[in-house]
Design goal:
By secondary structure, this protein is of the alpha/beta class. It has one domain: Rossmann fold, CATH 3.40.50.720. Helix content is about 50%, strand content about 15%. Helix 1 packs parallel to helix 9, helix 2 packs across helix 9 and helix 4 crosses helix 11. The radius of gyration is 20 Å and the shape is globular. It starts with a helix and ends with a helix.
Length: about 325
């Protein structure tokens, strides 16, 4: 057999093996999601017991989460984002729109609702942008907006005294946050520099690291006095989503799809750790999870003081606009 034929056969075989492996992993993720749904009672609890608000549902992980959860009558899924089809239409880079969105969520969840008094509510902050966006947009959508919504809805929950319903916040992060150098000491200067200098390469990592600190801060601030509140951060791994699409030419993006399909997780695989973070460990707050595991107890390992400083920056930014 000629060498060229051997190489072609080897290549086709390798691609076939990778394709089958991906299909098996998609099937396994779907099976794990169904087991999780049964374990937490999505298939047996009354209508409206779970209310889940998810940002970034137009594609990728957010869409996969919304599509899966909407199969169950016990779950009411609310989408949050720019498309007019969303339940809460909001531009996450617009402070006034974010404020209005928090009011709308409060009105839907806690005022005049027909849902059972007991239950479990979740806000999944999933929307994200990467390097092609402006530095300001990256920080607003990935950290400032999620932090503000988390704080504002926590306070609205407490004011409404909804003790019979639990409320969990899930921040979708990335292991790229390990590239950030943000600390309590340089928080203010680094974020200000990052937002003003478009050449800085760590906007995304900084925004995700800031939310790790913020989760630690919120856990330490609220969870002991209000145990029905919980805060979790999760990494879905490297997933084949639209994140980063605007960073490359459209032709290259579409031509690279087979490679991305074979080597990156599918959206449903990315949805598994996110939904597990939302429902799989309901008694524990202040953790960083992935693949149905707790990677880190960030309430103890991450500096809540850095989260407090970041929180101040968020409110200063909202009040200055």
């Amino acid at each position: 057999m000629r060498v060229s034929n051997v190489l072609i056969l080897t290549g086709v075989t390798t691609v076939g093996i990778l394709f089958v492996r991906r299909l098996l992993r998609i099937r396994a993720a779907t099976s794990e999601l169904q087991k999780l749904a049964h374990r937490v009672g999505l298939d047996v609890l009354p209508v409206g017991y779970f209310r889940v608000c998810i940002s970034g549902t137009s594609s990728g992980i957010g869409n996969a989460c919304a599509h899966f959860l909407s199969r169950y009558r016990s779950v009411k899924v609310f989408s949050l984002g720019r498309p007019e089809s969303c339940d809460f239409v909001v531009d996450l880079s617009d402070p006034s729109a974010i404020r209005s969105c928090a009011i709308d969520i409060e009105r839907e969840w806690y005022k005049g609702t027909c849902a059972p008094s007991a239950g479990f509510d979740v806000l999944i902050n999933n929307a994200g942008v990467f390097s092609a966006a402006t530095a300001s947009a990256i920080h607003w959508i990935n950290s400032f907006a999620p932090a503000f919504l988390t704080e504002d809805l926590s306070e609205r929950y407490i004011r409404n005294k909804i003790k019979s319903r639990m409320l969990r916040f899930v921040q979708v992060s990335s292991r790229l946050e390990s590239k950030s150098t943000l600390t309590a000491e340089n928080m203010r200067g680094s974020i200000s520099e990052s937002m003003e200098a478009p050449t800085r390469t760590l906007h995304y990592a900084d925004s995700k690291r800031a939310m790790m600190y913020h989760t630690s801060f919120m856990h330490n601030k609220f969870t002991l006095s209000h145990p029905s509140l919980s805060y979790v951060t999760v990494t879905p791994g490297m997933v084949n989503t639209a994140l980063g699409r605007s960073s490359v030419w459209a032709v290259i993006w579409y031509l690279s799809y087979p490679i991305r399909f074979l080597f990156l997780r599918s959206p449903i695989e990315g949805a598994l750790p996110v939904i597990w973070a939302a429902f799989g460990c309901p008694t524990e707050s202040g953790v960083f999870t992935a693949d149905q595991e707790i990677l880190e107890r960030i309430s103890a390992t991450r500096d809540p003081e850095a989260g407090r400083i970041f929180s101040e920056l968020v409110h200063e930014s909202f009040n200055s606009i």
